[in-house]
Design brief:
Layout lengths: L1 H25 L12 H7 L22 H4 L3 H6 L5 H12 L5 H21 L2 H7 L2 H16 L3 E20 L2 E17 L5 E4 L5 E12 L8 E7 L2
Antiparallel strand pairs: 1-2, 2-3, 2-4, 4-5
Helix pairs in contact: 6-7, 7-8
């Protein structure tokens, strides 16, 4: 009987020790515990508004029309053309339709496009032209290239640079923005016949070229690229 009581007491003490150790490891409920993490609800919680006292996490959304944030968008137009001028008003209308439009950035991009188009035309690179021209202009360029090739003529051209590329007109046609630039460039260009004789241009001199080009883009489209829709030479 004594042996039985000793064994009973031993296991009882062991059970108490184990219980105390488990409580120290697992902790006790205090009523302030966080619920188990749900990976799906965690994604939703990420979208909740941040605490007002943590300015580093606050994301300012664009304001509605009439607020200062919207008016600030027109600063790019005001920096490019005199406020109240026809061009300024027209550029503002484009910015209203496309808040990402910036006249200076557009003019810089137009310079790059101009060089690519002029070079591609001289080389007969239809693939590059197709990505930069509207359907009608592309067909006109391709027709000229084919006619040139049918006569076995070759254009050799060296692009020197662009002196000016100024926006002279802008307008919205429905949801399509049209921007017209006057571009002054310098080229060395000459056309050779099948016998390698120069039949047009001068391979030894730099010529100034004055063009008026119009680019267009549908402001509703996700495609940010503009395409050349009209060309005119002032030479």
């Amino acid at each position: 009987m004594g042996s039985f009581d000793f064994v009973t007491v031993f296991f009882f003490v062991a059970a108490v020790i184990i219980f105390l150790q488990l409580r120290n490891v697992l902790g006790r409920r205090t009523g302030s515990e966080r619920p188990p993490t749900d990976p799906y609800s965690a994604r939703e919680s990420d979208t909740e508004a941040p605490d007002s006292d943590d300015d580093s996490k606050v994301i300012t959304l664009p304001r509605r029309d009439g607020d200062k944030a919207v008016d600030d968008r027109y600063a790019a137009a005001d920096a490019y053309a005199k406020v109240g001028s026809d061009l300024n008003t027209a550029l503002r209308s484009v910015i209203t339709a496309d808040s990402d439009f910036d006249p200076k950035e557009f003019a810089a991009g137009a310079k790059t496009a101009y060089e690519m188009i002029v070079t591609a035309y001289a080389e007969g690179d239809k693939k590059t032209l197709k990505s930069l021209l509207s359907k009608d202009v592309y067909e006109g360029f391709v027709s000229a290239i084919k006619e040139r090739e049918s006569r076995s003529e070759v254009i050799k051209s060296t692009f020197i640079g662009i002196g000016k590329a100024d926006i002279v007109q802008a307008e919205m046609k429905g949801t399509e923005a049209n921007i017209t630039l006057r571009i002054v460039s310098e080229l060395i260009t000459a056309t050779y016949d099948k016998d390698d004789n120069v039949i047009d241009g001068d391979p030894e001199s730099v010529g100034e070229v004055n063009d008026v080009w119009t680019f267009a883009r549908d402001t509703r489209s996700r495609d940010p690229n503009w395409k050349l829709i009209a060309t005119e030479s002032e030479d």
